[in-house]
Amino acid sequence: MIDHALVFCRDHGIHDLLVDITGVSGFPPPTTLQRFNFATRWADTAGGRVNLSMLAPPHLIDPDRIGVTMAVNRGLHTDVFTSEPDAVNWLLFETH
């Protein structure tokens, strides 16, 4: 679903996307390989044209933020937050 949202934003000139996954449940935190796959796919999909702010529950965020590092290294301007105001502020002030 995130990939589809990135495609929509990219294709319609929408530069900022906030994804809220705080309500998802029923699966364990992603493995490092899964984080790598997400980071690679989303960076490719965004094509350097969409800033991605993610709102996630703490248990899904890697303490070393390896997914963010992998995505940034592949050209995706992204970060992950546990607070909605922080996620919104990052898009408003850190991406422009």
Write structural notes for this entry.
- The chain has 96 residues and is of the alpha/beta class.
- The protein has one domain.
- It contains four helices and three strands; from the N terminus they run αβαβαβα.
- It has helices spanning 2-11, 32-46, 66-73, 84-94, and strands at residues 16-20, 51-55, 78-81.
- It has a three-stranded parallel β-sheet, sandwiched between helices.
- α1 packs parallel to α2 (32-46).
- The longest helix has 15 residues, at 32-46.
- The radius of gyration is 12 Å and the shape is globular.
Output the keywords.
15% strand, single chain, 96 residues, 3 strands, globular, 4 helices
Counted up, domains total: 1
Structural class: alpha/beta
Largest sheet: 3 strands, parallel
* Mean pLDDT rating: 96
Which H/E pattern describes the elements?
Answer: HEHEHEH
Order of strands across the biggest sheet?
1-2-3
Can you tell me the residue ranges where pLDDT is under 50 for at least 5 consecutive residues? Answer: none
Can you count the beta strands? 3
Portion of residues in helices? 40-55%
Oligomer: single chain
Shape: globular
| C-alpha termini separation | 25 Å
